[in-house]
Amino acid sequence: MVFAALYLAALCLLAIGTFGLFGQESDPLSAVFLIPMGLPWVMFLDNLPEALRMTSAILAPLLNLVLIATICKILGKSRK
Predict the structure, then answer these.
(1) Which of 60, 67, 20, 66 has its CA nearest to residue 41?
(2) Roughly how many angstroms between the first and final C-alpha of the chain, as a whole number?
(3) d(Cα 58, Cα 33) in Å, to the nearest integer?
(4) By the 8 A CB rule, do 61 and 38 touch?
(5) Under a CB-based contact definition with an 8 Å cutoff, are residues 44 and 52 in contact?
(6) C-alpha distances in angstroms, 10 versus 47, 58, 68, 77, 78?
(7) Can you give the pLDDT of all 80 residues of the chain as single tens digits?
(8) Residue 61 exposed, middle or buried by CB count within 10 Å (0-12, 13-18, 19+)
């Protein structure tokens, strides 16, 4: 739940920094919080084209979120 909230906050910061919402200037480093959240998957994105690289970096934390939820579900069933 905490990881999902942090991911949502990082996506909001990305939108605010990219589109200059709420009077903010456009900031190229607005996706900086998504990079560590998407490790280790972002380390494999170097060979992708630029357009796919950015989209993949944004979606990499979602993969980690799915993996965390799946592991928690499996461990929850095994303890019953």
Answers:
(1) 60
(2) 21
(3) 10
(4) yes
(5) no
(6) 24, 9, 18, 31, 32
(7) 899 999 999 999 999 988 888 888 888 788 899 999 999 999 999 999 988 998 999 999 999 999 999 999 999 887 76
(8) buried
Q: What whole-number distance in Å separates Cα of residue 12 and Cα of residue 30?
A: 9
Conformation bin of residue 20: beta by default, left when phi > 0, alpha when psi is -120 to 50: left
Q: State which H helix or E strand residue 59 sits in.
A: helix 50-78
Q: Tell whether omega for the bond before 40 is within 30 degrees of 0, i.e. cis.
A: yes
Number of domains in the chain: 1
Model pLDDT, residue 80: 63
Q: Could you give the CA distance from residue 59 to residue 66 in angstroms, rounded to a whole number?
A: 11
Residue span of the structural domain in which 27 resides: 2-78
